[in-house]
Amino acid sequence: MTAAVATTSGLIGMWNGTTDGTEEGFVDWSTGKTNVNNPREVEIEVADIRTLNPQPTYASHGYELVGHKSGLTAEQFLAGATPEGKAYIEDVYFKEVAELVKKITGSNDVTPYVHRVRQNNMRPGTFSTEKLSHTALPVAHVDRDDVTGENGMRELLKERGEELLKRGVRYAQVNVWRTIGEPIQRWPLCFVNHSAVPDWTYKTHMARVYPQNDPRVQIRGEKSHDSVLKHDPNYKYHYASALDVDEALVFSSFDSETSKVIPHGAFWDNSSLDDAPTRRSIEVRCWVVFDEGK
Q1: pLDDT of residue 81
Q2: What is the CATH number of the domain that holds 177?
Q3: What is the domain extent for residue 138?
Q4: Among 49, 123, 192, 277, which one is most buried in terms of CB atoms within 10 A?
Q5: Considering the domain boundaries, does residue 133 fall inside one?
């Protein structure tokens, strides 16, 4: 007998258009001025990856739940906002991440380049456009699209990146996401599976939001726009319940092969207890280059 798939219900934010009817949005980070409507709060049923058979893998779905014990403590992860803590994470944890991503993706060409530590304790109804990239991102998105993906390769890998683009090799941004200190009990990470949407592309199902006076440039480098997911009734939603400290989620937050990218974002889990602790997580983003033919 096949075991039942466990699910939970919740809310996730998606693109909700602009106040002026234009197709593209903007946010001025210095003033908070924007033409973007507050996110559309989409009610979703989310399947627990742990109960799926077969399990989603990076190769098959673009995301995978893996066992991964880090040598860093919770305190060392949380110190990542300080210069000394940031340097330690980039020296020690980036090496761990690179080895994990090589193992999961099958590529030996992996370059971790930025990390983000987030904490989120807010509740539904507090979504706000000007906080699209603050705390835990309660808006489904991809980290880059066909335009910002190419620009990212050029920025990080310089002449080599330009050469790889000319050769037409497959490349991706692969993220490693984990909890800090204790299992995730609120705002878990949701993967939006678009495999049942045959015409899904960056152009058809992502909306662009152009930042102005963007302070994130110092962290992630230049990026002309953010990419927010548009709703489609054929999406399927997956998450890992109670993600533990010795586990990680590895997923493609951008891929030059569009079918491989996985939109994602924190979602409000209706089963979360009122006194659940603040969600604390760390994410490392890596550029990954695949050999031709893979």
Answers
A1: 84
A2: 2.60.120
A3: 43-289
A4: 192
A5: yes
